[in-house]
Amino acid sequence: MGDAEVITSVWRQVEVGRIVLITRGEHRNKLAAIVEIVDHKRVLLDNPTLHNNRPLLPRQSMPLAHVTLTGIVIPKFPRAAGTGPLRKSWEAHKVSEKWEASAWAQTKGRLDRRRELSDFERFKVMRLKKQRRYEVQKSLASVRASAKA
Fold first, then answer.
1. Is there a contact between 55 and 33 (Cβ–Cβ < 8 Å)?
2. For 33-74, what is each residue's pLDDT tens digit?
3. What is the phi-psi region of residue 17: left when phi exceeds 0, alpha when psi lies from -120 to 50, beta otherwise?
């Protein structure tokens, strides 16, 4: 028989060192790293980033249903490591820069910006879209006219 090549799917696995995005609760839209797996439904999260000399996200247990796994992993991160080693690994692997450069973060930023627009700013966006649509239709009409001639 011929050789069969089996290609497995690349799944984002729950693993120590995986960076997650919190989707629910008071720390919504913040990044954290899995530092320990509590059980099949809960993980221990930590974020070493400081804000006003206080942690942006305190070390806490959270259900996996409240987080989304990202593609960013800190490789060979030791289980149950403290915030100090996590901070060094976070900076060494440039987690924040990788997240900011990801298409996911950029799309999220655009959606958040649109969500925060005032009524007048939404009106200005609508007018700009109308102007763009008019210019596109005008150039398309000139291309059609030159094609007929």
1. no
2. 999 999 999 999 999 888 777 778 899 999 999 999 999 999
3. left
Structure tokens at 64: 């996996």
User: Which residue spans within 75-142 are E strands per DSSP?
Assistant: none
pLDDT at 9 over 80: no
- Of 32, 98, 108, 105, which is closest to residue 67 (Cα–Cα)? 32
Residue closest to 61 by CA, chosen among 44, 78, 80, 83: 44
Whether residue 1 is predicted with pLDDT greater than 70 in this model: the reply is no
Phi, psi (rounded to 5 degrees) for 97: -65, -40
List, as one string, the DSSP characters of 34-87: EEEE-SSSEEEEEEEEEETTEEEEEEEEEEGGGEEEEEEE-TTPPTT--HHHHH
Query: pTM for the complete prediction?
Result: 0.74
Half-sphere exposure of 32 (CA within 13 A, CB side): 28
Task: Report the alpha-carbon distance of residue 103 to residue 100 in Å, rounded.
Answer: 8
Give 108's Cβ-side CA count (13 Å radius). 13
